[in-house]
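Students often ask why we bother encoding 3D structure as a string. The short answer is that it lets us treat folding as translation between two languages. Here is a chain of 303 residues written in the first language.
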Amino acid sequence: MGRSILTLTAVLLALGLATGGEAAAKVRSVASTPDLKALTDAVGGDLVDVVSLVRGTQNAHDVEVRPSLMLKLRHADLLVRNGLGLDYWVEPLVVGAHNARILPGTAGYVDASRGVAVIPPKGPIDRSRGDVHPEGDPHYTLDPANAGVVTANIVEGLRRVAPQHGPLFETQRREFLGRLEAAMARWQKTLEPYRGAKVVTYHETFNYFLRRFGLELAGAIEDRPGIPPSPAHLAELIRTIREQKIKVIVAEPYADRKVVELVARDSGARTLVLPSAVGGIKGIDSYLDLIDHNVRALAEALR
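And here it is in the second language, the structure alphabet:
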């Protein structure tokens, strides 16, 4: 009798049908960007398996719709997307994945931008101005103060698809936000001496980050998002950098380094490559790692 019970238990465990088997199953999650993967990891812990559709070194504005990405979505319980037009390529991927659980409006669909105080677009919205996002600046995850809203959206989605773990998701979120709050005080102190300093960026990726820490964007190498800059724009930008004695040009890992180095050489500013997402450079494996690295690197460059 004893051997029979053990055998039956082993079979049930293998099938995930034994008592507690359902509770132990992880939530299969897909995030459209590495930052959202990191934040889902932070609140989901060991209860979730998360993959990102984009690498940290990639330009998230420009992602090829591939069958391999559809396969990642096919069996997902939860999709966490950036929204605001950054990951527009998610729509065809979701259609191709044939997974009704993650369609917009279902329990498994999370738009992480919901409730974020979005920086509105500047000037008129038309294609002649490049890849302007009519919904507003989509790079909101680079402001650590937005992590509270974003993780609330993620936990709400996790609670819908795995309600049995709801209290633990919320506990893990509070613990993460506690660590973030402590780090925020340190980051503010580190960049406080440089409040009001101006920087130039390649793409306007870091607007939220600069605003959070009291820094100013003096200009961008891309005068129109997603379109190579004109010689006239570069000449004007170089003149601005010289006149305003701007020290730093911030470039994303995917930026056109030849253009960045040209502007740096002719203006006398220093090039600083900052990761624009988790995994953008080696060793940046978590959301706190990302913000911590960028704060310290920018403070060092502005000395």
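Translate back mentally: The chain has eleven helices and eight strands. Keep this in mind for the problem set.
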